[in-house]
Design goal:
Radius of gyration: 17 Å
Number of helices: 7
Shape: globular
Strand content: 15-25%
Order of helices and strands: EHEHHEEEHEHHEH
Structural class: alpha/beta
Helix content: 40-55%
Largest sheet: 5 strands, parallel
């Protein structure tokens, strides 16, 4: 099984890159894991305190479960991937059944930040974007999808997202085999990654 890690800052265009890659591949051939599904459960934290949780540092993730699931997939075992709600800041009861695939893509802000995770990846990708562009995307996404006000999003960006990006996310760029500037607009990089995956899939047929 080939594991491809796709990292990058919040609002960098990681999800768009993954979506465009998947659109160019045969349906059902590649497994997708979102690191966001592996946030630690915060249901034990009082509701009024959940919005204060720092979701942009390594401590926010259940790395052990993520690694366990990736190793099980490599062993040919299916997993029950957790799901996470940003509205309640807690893990949902529902899980996503994921069968083993020849290629698995794992995307998230910090997937290149843990050495244990990097060591089992075959390709490491970092999606890069200008800070202002990322802020605009974060405002749009969080206001529409997560019910937050623009003021709250900007405050969180300045107080948490920007310093965490500089401390934890940006340094992981040095571990990438491929850096994708301009996120989902970089068709050349997306085609290169897609062609690599197609090549791996054809080897296993």
């Amino acid at each position: 099984m080939i594991i491809i890690g796709i990292a990058g800052g919040t609002g960098s265009g990681k999800t768009t890159v993954v979506r465009k890659i998947m659109e160019r591949l045969p349906q059902g051939e590649v497994g997708i894991i979102s690191q966001d599904n592996y946030y630690k459960d915060s249901s034990h934290v009082p509701v009024e305190d959940r919005q204060k949780i720092n979701f942009d540092e390594p401590a926010a993730f259940d790395w052990d479960l993520l690694l366990k699931h990736l190793k099980e997939l490599k062993q040919g075992k299916a997993i029950e991937m957790p799901t996470y709600s940003y509205l309640t800041c807690s893990r949902n009861e529902e899980t996503i059944h994921l069968e083993p695939h020849d290629v698995v893509v794992i995307e998230g802000i910090l997937v290149l930040s843990d050495p244990r995770l990097r060591n089992i990846m075959d390709i490491k990708v970092f999606v890069d974007a200008d800070g202002d562009d990322r802020l605009i995307r974060v405002i749009s996404r969080d206001c529409i999808e997560r019910g937050r006000t623009a003021e709250a999003v900007i405050d969180r960006y300045q107080r948490v997202l920007k310093p965490m990006h500089q401390l934890h996310i940006e340094p992981a760029k040095k571990f990438a085999n491929i850096i994708v500037p301009e996120g989902g607009h970089n068709e050349v990089a997306i085609n290169l990654i897609t062609d690599y995956i197609k090549g791996q899939l054809s080897k296993n047929k």
